[in-house]
Specification:
Strand content: 15-25%
Low-confidence stretches: none
CATH topology of the largest domain: Dihydrodipicolinate Reductase, domain 2
Function: Catalyzes the NADPH-dependent reduction of N-acetyl-5-glutamyl phosphate to yield N-acetyl-L-glutamate 5-semialdehyde.
Shape: globular
Main location: cytoplasm
Oligomer: single chain
Number of helices: 9
Number of domains: 2
Active site: 130
Distance between the termini: 35 Å
Catalytic activity: N-acetyl-L-glutamate 5-semialdehyde + phosphate + NADP(+) = N-acetyl-L-glutamyl 5-phosphate + NADPH + H(+)
Subcellular location: Cytoplasm
Largest sheet: 7 strands, mixed
Order of helices and strands: EHEHEHEEHEHEHEHEEHEEEH
CATH architecture of the largest domain: 2-Layer Sandwich
CATH class of the largest domain: Alpha Beta
Helix content: 25-40%
Structural class: alpha/beta
CATH superfamily of the largest domain: Dihydrodipicolinate Reductase, domain 2
Strand order of the largest sheet: 8-9-7-10-13-12-11
Amino acid sequence: MIEAGIIGGAGYTAGELIRILLWHPEVNLNFIYSTSQPGKFVSGIHQDLVGDTELKFTDKINTEADVVFLCLGHGNSRKFLAENKFSENTKIIDLSTDFRMNGEHDFIYGLPEFNKEKIKKANFIANPGCFATAISLAILPLAKAKKVEGEWHVNAVTGATGAGTSLSPTTHFTWRDNNFSAYKSFEHQHLLEIGQSLKKLQQGFDQTVNFIPNRGNFSRGIHATAYTKFSGSIEEAKQIYSEAYKDAAFTFLTEEEMHLKQVVNTNKCLLKLQKFGDNLLITSVIDNLLKGASGQAVQNLNLMFGLDERTGLNLKANYF
């Protein structure tokens, strides 16, 4: 069995990770570290786990664990690893932004659809951001084919869980309910990793990715639309995307109209391509907590330990 530990166990992504790993056939959840909840039952915080586990949060770590997931706030993963040393055989999967840029400290960017072979050999994974995952899966096939001709225009909406568990004026129910707003227009932090991936796949790419993120009045999921100039036909575009995802475990093309309930509570990404005049439009939907975070992290674990990507991730959509 793979002995796994979680650092920062009280947040949304940790809760999803615990839920998956408890039922993963090849993993034993060895410890769940939390400085805010030590000694408390995990099911007292993640209440969907009542009856599933008697594990308690701890303020001790097992430095010999086979794999450790860092579910810490941005900036805290770097600090934690500087203060805590694991064995040379321990693999690290970080869910923060700390190591996503330029492979710092041998961290591999953990987007399986484009980095699968590197992930298989990696000891350190920087799990992509949620918006970055939805948008990258929408636009990177065109860059891989060297077919990006101009600027990208992206509009995406995320659920309230994308903001984490810490309260702020825009996460209170009275503000979020029956409301909609844009934030961090043209300067969201995930633009950096999206741009990095684009430039690696299409060298010389120097166009702008114009991104407007939005807050939706729902709990989880991301719905993204991205369009750019494309001189080819819709059939050519579909062939490019079909080739890019022919071996993808969780990313699928569809001809049908899409909605979030198709992917919420799953590790799937669904994509739809349409051509309007000179513009190619790609619609992308994911669950921000799963394919955008914890599900993708377990997908990376599976690759790192030589397992089928789908192991432990046979999750069903919350359709009704």
